[in-house]
Amino acid sequence: MKGLVLDAEWQPRPDYPLSDWERRTGKAITGSSIWRYPKLEVRDWPDPTPGPRDVVLAVQACGVCGSDMHFYETDADGYILYPGLTKFPTILGHEFSGRVVEVGSQVETLKVGDMVTAEEMIWCGRCIPCRNGYPNHCLNLEEIGFTIPGAFAQFIAVDEKYCWKIDALAERFGSEETAFEVGALTEPSCVAYNAIFTRAGGFKPGHYVSVFGAGPIGLASIGLAKAAGAGIIAAFEVSPPRRALAKAVGADFVFDPREVSPSAVLMELSKGEGFNVHVEAAGAPHLTVPEMEKALAINGRIVQIGRAAQRVPLYLETLQVRRSQLFGAQGHSGHENFPNVIRLVAAGRLDLRPIITARYGLQDTVNAIARSVERTDGKILVKPNQSEER
Ligand SMILES: [Zn+2]
Ligand SMILES: [Zn+2]
């Protein structure tokens, strides 16, 4: 089959303390300190062979994520920008949907023809964090499209336990093609859902929600806040097309954060009371969190989703005086995240179709990732299987 393969050279930076585990497994914990000179190319890759509990999916849609962009972009020394867990060469792509075309001998919950999406985090279920109910913090994590082959490919094998059926989406939209496209948005939507509702405990209907950054995660956050009954949703985003998308999925007010004082705007909108929930989806917390801090409602919450290797000035006294809290969130697995997001979409309460702004065939995946670097799109999709023939 064909897939978008990323290869790079294992060249730990001279000042990087390479661990024995990294040496032994060939996995980089901090990818941006080890992988140099990335090469992305659509090329032949062995067909996946399913294990007993795996299903093989013919991939129908796979979204380009910010992390894919950070594999494509390098720093001045040629290192990838993505700072997380990685093992190359592998096929990229982790926000996907597909149709089951083959099932392993022990698969019980899925059959050939089923429409599914899947988690990206291959949590082990055996380590202490997994056993304690924290799969997003698994100690033996494999990640689809980061450490094991991903879904910018014609086919992918996934254990059935990470798959979630999306046939209800086909019923909602009256189109399997739309269901697959929207199904590929499930993973990033679950990142937002996990952060706002699972980690931070959500908010009461009527509460005011701010979202900093209207990339795909921020846009999903806006759609979810709308579905959950936010009283006002205010978004901050530098890109004009993304500001328009923020409105399209439910933001009441959208601002360019370079042209206003975000905290002043939020205090004005809330008549001095502050916002109840602040979502950081910009990956620039050194700029956004100080603004959130100045616009915290009493019992307000700050939810950190964006990734940034950055220290943040935060006056803790404010958290005390405003009885406020700060939540760190990572991942999307467990905690009913996937089924609840799929329910919201199937019910018509979360409709992120407007955020799909471009579609590419598998052969053009590198162009799709190159386009994402402009940071003006919502979600760019790659659609690998026009035909499902192997
Ligand atoms: Zn992603
Ligand atoms: Zn685990």
Tell me, rounded to a whole number, the average pLDDT. Answer: 96
Q: What structural category do the secondary elements indicate?
A: alpha/beta
Strand content: 25-35%
Number of E-type strands: 18
Number of helices: 13
Describe the biggest sheet? 7 strands, mixed
Q: Which cofactors or ions or other ligands sit in this model?
A: zinc ion
Low-confidence parts: none
What Rg do the Cα atoms give? 21 Å
Work out the helicity level.
Answer: 25-40%
Describe this structure in words.
28% of the residues lie in helices and 25% in strands. With 390 residues, the chain is α/β, with parallel strands linked by helices. Strands 3, 5, 6, 9, 10, 17 and 18 form a 7-stranded mixed sheet that branches. Helix 13 links the parallel strand 17 and strand 18. Helix 4 packs across helix 5 and helix 6 crosses helix 12. The chain is globular and about 60 Å long. It starts with a strand and ends in a 7-residue tail after the last strand. The relative contact order is 0.15. Bound molecules: zinc ion (2 copies). One zinc ion binds next to helix 3.
Report a brief summary of the structure:
By secondary structure, the protein is an alpha/beta fold. The chain has helices at 20-25, 66-72, 128-131, 167-173, 176-183, 186-199, 216-227, 240-248, 262-269, 285-293, 316-321, 337-346, 365-372; strands at residues 2-10, 35-44, 54-63, 90-91, 95-103, 115-118, 121-122, 142-143, 155-159, 163-165, 208-212, 232-236, 253-255, 275-280, 296-304, 325-328, 356-361, 379-383. It binds zinc ion (2 copies).
